[in-house]
Please model this.
Amino acid sequence: MLQTLDELVQYLRRTVPQPKLIKQMLPDEKAGVVTFEWQSRRFAVRKSLEVFEVKGNRIFVTGASGLMQAALTTKNRNQSVINAVIETLEQVEGQMRDNKPKALALLDSVK
Model:
């Protein structure tokens, strides 16, 4: 979960497919969401990465919002896995000099 709407705006700009198609991205502090238009659809995204489609003054869970949410959370999950792998590899590197068997066992967990 992201901490601020500004972080969410930056995350969305990096993560939404075809980010050049994003229009009118606006943080709404009162509602706790960021709204934007993409592919002729209006979305509202919470800091927890829940995505809703906005139609008029109402929000809906639609197929499009589900797909957008899947795109946002998958990339977030993949980044978490990559960070964990990097951290483990750094630990392996540090232990190679002192304890090779333990380092190799750690390396097996990365596979």
In short: The chain has three helices and five strands. The chain has a mean pLDDT of 85.
